[in-house]
User: Fold Helix-turn-helix domain-containing protein from Streptomyces liliifuscus.
Amino acid sequence: MSSTGAEADGTLGAFSVDSTVPGAVPRGFDVFLREWETRIGDRFPQPTYSPETIADFRVKSRVAKIRDVAITDVHGVSAVRTAGIPRGVEDQVRLYVVRRGAWTLGGSRDGGEHTVLGGQFLLRHVGRPSHFETVPNTTARVLVLPATMLKPLLGNRIMTGSADSPEIRLLAAHANMVHATMADLSPAGVHAAHSSLIELAKAVAQSRFDDMEPRLAPALAQAAKDLADSQLADPELSPPMLARELNVSVRTLQRAFAAVGESATTYIRHRRLEEARLALTAGPGRPTVSELAAHWQFADSSHFIRAFKKHYGQTPTEYARATRPPEN
Assistant:
């Protein structure tokens, strides 16, 4: 990865490592640690890992730093475990969002451990380094956040809940945007992205977000898009359904989409047309026009054909014919 000005001055940092493919990244742990120390820096020190973890480090990771926030996406084919009881003092807030597997955390004030299972999140203030371990095939996102703005909201609480809560959905959508746009962020963009991360972390701590906050509109629109993409074939998919799932009013959702220059209804229709277009190029056994219209929730074949031609300039049949591979 080439360094931008922001990366060079320590404001931003990013890298990815995939040692899950045999032989692709020799000494995967060493590569991960070197990249972390180079790109992410001393503000976010890594713990000491167990010898077993170092020897068998089959992990796919994507890491981004934006000022005093670090975002780590990790899928561990192998288990990952720290060694011994870490010592020292920390003053951070950490959010663990586990999509699959399990992540067990030590270091709580009651001396016990907390296990975050797939489909759950855990948010807490960390006053000292803590032990952790994961089971094989754990997929998770970990955010390290500044304590100054978040500790007053948390106190000594350890918050847990569903990884599909509206607040986590918005934070996940914004984190994905940070990963995707880091190389192009201007100084103003860095400020906006960082501010939105903090506001969304506050929303998780308070179990609600300010739906009138304009800085959160892009995250809300992206969360709605992500949700729509996962349910495109659902006949109930609509702006009201998306608003209900994200715990906002339809008007708030429409305002968020307007801020990024489109509408929720148009987005759903265009994504369904895109999936139908891809299906038309599937070769032998591809669905008929009537089947596509029914599957992607168009009223009938005529409505589907008109919408497809308006969007792509050809009818579905014409498009399929034009993209058909030549016969030998």
About this structure: The domain at 5-164 is CATH 2.60.120.10 (Jelly Rolls). Residues 1-5 have pLDDT under 50 and may be disordered.
